[in-house]
User: Fold this.
Amino acid sequence: MMSPKRNLSALTVELIRAEMSENRLPVVIFGASMAGEVIFYRCQELGIRVLAFCDNNIKKTGRDYCGIPVVHTKELIAHFGDVNLLIAVADIEDIIIQVERLNYTHWYPGNIFLKTVNTFHHVYSGPAEYVDYVVKTCIHCQDNYIQPDRLFLRSVDVIITERCSLKCAHCSNLMQYYEHPQNCETTQILESIAILCSVVDEINEFRVIGGEPFMNKEVHIITQALVKESKVLNVVIYTNGTILPKPEQIQGMNDPKVLVLITDYGELSRNLDPLVESLSAAGIRYYVGKAGGWTDCSTIAKHNRPADDLKALFTECCAKNTFTFSDDKFFRCPFSANIERLGHIPVNSADRFDLAMAMKSGWDESFIKRQLSAFINKMEYMSVCDYCNGRSFDAPEIEPARQIRQFLKLDLSNIQTGMPCE
Assistant:
């Protein structure tokens, strides 16, 4: 069996092609997404026939992508038996663990193929600048996988406001439960960012989120601070297309590191067109994606699951590595972060990493780095997982952005007894 971290740095496209020619196994790309699309067309250029994509997201399966079928990962063996797998996923470590549990040994990091592509010389299904961003992210994340001594974070969400211009009944970030939403304190946000950057080696992207980040009038100040951090490669602002930023906010986003991701909620995104026009005029990278992929993961209720069930829930969770910065604390996911902000369940200090407290404790940065690395890499589940419905890739989709008139009131007694709060 191929060791996850041994010999990967020595792999080349030529070596992979030689191994494929020798074993004569079908070629499948793991990840029916933009990076997978780029790898597919690169394989075509190299004369490598790809038979299918596989994906953990069941909603992507049962249809064609790039003209070939997408198979659910759990059904891959039944369809093809043993295969050569080209991994087109940024979070490669989770995928390697999964495929080796399925006894697949002929897997290869897709970054080796992606490095041989100039995305601006091809036409893909997405805008060129967005494709370039996705490809570079995949390359960078997979490159860092083979450097275990580096504390590299693919993505960190930073909550800058609880306020939102929409009232979605099933917001996965739990904004529907805030009775009196507030902006987060900018000074504290900036201090926390500086602390985190002092103990990590690199962060591929900081994702500026809310709520709706443009509800915070100082979004551009936070963005500029992130841009100036040398360890931060990208700053991604997530918006729902309802608010047109002011000129000074637009100017504060005008940097090659910045990408604005706009979710198109149809009529709800009332300022989508003027927002796109403003970003285009300023030369700011942006991408517009249709709303979708929502699941019922926002109900808060205690389930009293045994430890084995919590471990399984955590393993299958698509958000367990959606690291979230809230005030001066580092969480594994937005559900965990906002549960603590809401203050309706007992806090378990093991569910988050308190960076400010760690610094005040007098620990040196190398010790904090090791502790943070353990929090990221060695956790099997969190106690807060027992209050979550779960966020598996194969969870059924629900209607996105269904609006409600007012916040959803939580009843603490219902939460503790397992009654859902809606």
